[in-house]
Structure formats: structure tokens, C-alpha cells
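Quick one from the shared queue. A colleague (R.T.) flagged alanine racemase as missing a structural entry in our internal table.

Convert sequence to C-alpha cells.
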Amino acid sequence: MMPDPAPTSWCTIHRDRIARNLDLALGLVPTGRRFCAVLKADAYGHGIEHVVPLVRDRGVTCIGITSNAEARAVRAAGYTGSLIRLRVATPQEAEEALPDHVEEQVSTPDMARHLRALRDAGRLRTGVHLALNVAGMSRDGLEIESSDGRDACRLILDLLGVAIRGICTHFPSNLPGQLRESADLFQAQAAWVVDAGGLDRRKVLVHAGSSLTLTSDTTIETDMYRCGAVLYGILRPDLGYRPTMDLETRVVGLQTYPRGASVGYDRTVRLTRDSRLACLSIGYENGFGRIASGAANVAIAGNLAPVLGKVSMNAIVADVTDLPQVQLGDTAVVFGGSGSAAITPEMAERQFDTIMADLYTDWGRRNARIHR
């Protein structure tokens, strides 16, 4: 489909806020540590091509991605620094990413053999990162607490040797006690890997820690922080981080309905008074999830208005009976805004029963984006 020249719902992306959030994050990085800007999921739905220049202009030397399409977009935006894939890849993915010089993660001997063959053929010119589980996510990292895991790790080290540029993990919890335990175990396991592989520790990037780790009061040892959430203002407003995306729509219908009339599918709501209702041009197609039926508010004309009935594919209904100033064509704020009528991250997470990272990536891909 062609882009809609007059979208009925849209995301406003605040590049100045992303830049400010990035500056704040870089200010927290201890001297001598590196920073990886995480731009996976199309920069959390904000548009990679619009975020890369902000990262590049601040001298950030590493970007984290997950897909080959993201890697190509980062390179197309003119970035020449390190690109790390933040999950393991299939052999086909890794091979197709060679032109973009993606540093892959490895956690199995089979993938190590494939990467070794690419390296021997002169096609793989980047280093790789050994991914450890560290009794954590149990997702794709190698668990070396077991004897089988240590044997697999030794084989990977034998196959790749000095090509191992990094040792990494991802902490499952940033609660102080659990973070401390995970960080200590990771350092111990990384030291074992360095010793078992005869690696030069000065040439190996031992890295873990996310935005939550960087902004935590618990200090950990890591050569690099990999951060996404703080760039987009998802957490720690007390430190000055601001949300970087607004989601808005329009009032496309205004009607008055009598007391007793039903609203939406399945007649789940009946009006308790004569009511003036606004039809808004957004629905679950645009990421306004049905889970929010009967539990959401939008902001119209500087006031909160409750959403009534079940969410439709392309429409929701808001009660504006007490807002006579609302007119056809007015903008309705689904997320963002300011003052007492702002739809805050806390409100959005409660209404949609999920986290802001999920909402951002969904909204940014389902709606038109306006970058400022």
C-alpha cells in the first residue's frame, strides 16, 4: 500500500528527546567503559534511519541490532562503527550479513564451525562474541556451569580462538541482589573462558548490562553497556529521561445517543445517561489493543475522556459528554501529551497490560511516523 497522505493515526517521534536521553545515558557511563546503542526493532519503532545520525554524531562506536534488515539500514544511514547482533543467528543469516560486517554471537560448536569456515575462506573479517547463559535467560547463551557446557565451550574456543572478540550475557533481573549475583557469576565465568582459551583479556570485550543496569544503584563490572530503553525515555523519569513518541488520532464522528443505548460489539456497555460520543479513527489495527476495552482513556481538548465498549479494528469510542468544546477533526492523544491530561507511560502500561518497549515497537510499525 502507498503511504497515506492524510493518516488518521500517527506517531510523532521527538528526535530532540532521543538526543537528550542519549546524552544523559552517556553521562552515566563510567570512564573507560564503552556504550552500545541498541536500535533493534527499527529503533524501538522510531525509525533506524532517523536515530543513527544522533548516535553517530555523539561518537558512539557500537550499535546493537538483531535482524539483517536492521544491519543494512544502519550501514545505509552512514554508520561505520561496530555492529553487534544481540542474539544468535542462523548460518544463513550470518552469511548474508557479511557485507555489513556484523559481529555475530556464538554459543554452539555447530555455529562455531560455520563461522570458522567463513573465516578460513577470508569472508568473515569481524570478530565474534561468545554468548554465555550465566544461569540467566536460558534463551540462546551457552550454560557452562555443566561439564557438557564446558566441553562445548572448549570446542568453540579451539575452533575460533583469537576470533573471539567478546564474551557477553544478558541479565534476567536488575533487582539489586539478583543483579549482583549475576554480575559476579558472569565475571567468574568470563575469567574461566579467557583462561581455558588462552585469550588475551586486554583484547576481549566482556560485556553485559542494559539500560536498567546502567541506571541501577548497583555497580557492576562490564566493559560495555548495551542500552536501548533509556534512549527512548522508557524508564527513570526522575533522572530526566523523557518519552520520545506520541500516538495521536482524530475525532471523525460526533453523535448524541440516548440513555440505554449500547456501545460497541456485544453490547458490553450501555449508556447510563444521554451521551455525546466521539468516534476516533484508531483501533487494534493501529496497536490500540482490545485488552484496553473498557479500561482506557484518551486526551481530547486538554481533558481525559474514557473509552467505552470494545475496541474495533479501526475505531474506538470516547465519552465526551462533559466536553462540549470537542469538535469534529480534533486531535485525540492516545499516548503522550502534557499536563494533567497527559497519557503517561504508567497509564499506558496499565491500560494495555504490557511494557512500553512492546507498545513503542508496535505503534511505530503500525502507524504513520512524523519525525521532529
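The first helix runs from residue 15 to 28.
Residues 245-371 form a domain with the Lyase, Ornithine Decarboxylase; Chain A, domain 1 fold (CATH 2.40.37.10).
Added to the table.
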